Amino acid sequence: MSDWLKQTIGRLQPLETAVNRAWWQAAVTGSAEEYARLETLRNQYDELFRDPRLTEQLETAAAAPSEDPVRARAIELLRLAALPRQVDRLLTERMNRLATEIERDFATYRPSFEGGEASKNDLEEILARGTDGARLRAAWEALKTDGPLVAPRLRELVELRNEAARTVGHQDFWHMKLAMDEQEPSAIGALFDRLEALTREPFQLVKEEIDERLAERLGIAPGDLQPWHYQNPFFQETPAVFGVDLDTQYEEVDILDAARRFFRGVGLPVEEILGRSSLYEAPGKDPHAFCTNIDREGDIRILLNLRPTERWMGTTLHELGHAVYDAGIDPSLPWILRQAAHTVTTEAIAMLFGRLSRSADWMAGMGIVDPATADELRGPASRELRANMLVFSRWAQVMTRFERGLYADPGQDLDELWWSLVERYQLVARPDRPREAADWATKIHVVMAPVYYHNYLLGECFASQLDAGLRSEVLGGEPVWCGNPGVGEWFTERVFRPGARWHYDELARQATGSAVAPEAFAEQFLAEVSP
Ligand SMILES: [Zn+2]
Fold it and tell me: What is the 515 CA–ligand 1 centroid distance (Å)?
């Protein structure tokens, strides 16, 4: 590639590395100067794509695709990256400002509760553990009080996003975002319809079981259950009613040591990655977790805030899943292709590794529990995992269908749209709510990661396809990954090495024989698990 394409990549690569370094510094320190530096660098990076000469070169090249498939793919990826950046600069700035403003309000808002103020973490804690109905209701309602606060600006942001999408030839933002992600609206719609039909009955049954157990715990009739009884502000995961408490098993576990041993055992060593990472809580540090590939030349890091709990074991495995994917990409590919094929594929890998912390077989394989405890845990843990997958899949239906409706018609009665979807897909009763309660506006993804949620469910589907493939081709039908270097080899060859060489459905076909589809997910999670 000795031409404009090479030069373009030569300009993008150092700037993207600088953006990633600044992002890392900002996340680790929380310093306002670092965040300001990050914003400046991001704007410079966006500016590179606004070069009208580049736009012309990309369009000319796309009209007469290269015979060289690597070059054609590189041009396609650049064209997709350039698409949202062709929106007018002033409009982009307005959208960014509004999104940042709403994000800050979300981050700093302190709901009033029981005569004082409470943090969202405190309220979620009450929801998760409480049994007093009135107090649960008060905590749930307090968690929804930022809805009306942000809703008018969020509507405005949605209108601006639609306006931006129309200036680059799409009917609304939902359609533009899918185009950027190489997703066909009708195919995504069909896949969600198929998943909906597959999960409807199994979910209904599991929901009845959850309701019975919850009602008994709360001392009420199942018919009287309200949204605040589900231990989570959105019922996006299963309530803890299956008698599995894994945190006690992880109290004494050195999470990093377990992760190091596990990944070394499957032939995907993580020592170097952990050596560059930020692992423990610190003042000002981002409280979440993520993985970043700084330079696509081997500098891969994860950010964690480790505590000895099952959740952090799962999160560590999840983030290291992203990391070993990045580390396994063919280094001889051009820089633009040295990335995961798609959000769907990297989330699938991360979720597949992240699921292990709840697997009795994995815990036994790692020496976290003895074989007898593993035998006791196996049944309840797999029933809980299954319930969790069903609950999550129905919640993802709500989010995906809500966002589609939101961008199609932002002026409609969004409270009505939200609650009718919750009733229909999650089978949760609609409570009495004040007019314009805007419960939909309290889910931060709608602001920060718009039209993204569907990828999580596609990721779960692909994860199940990979799980089935690995099991039959490498594990001889057994669910035990620990200490088998064939696991790492299989993932590297099938998924990691090609990077972004192909569309993710093509990658899935080559890795598992089928495009991303719900059948393997159904096979793995929809059948009953005997108690
Ligand atoms: Zn992830």
Answer: 21
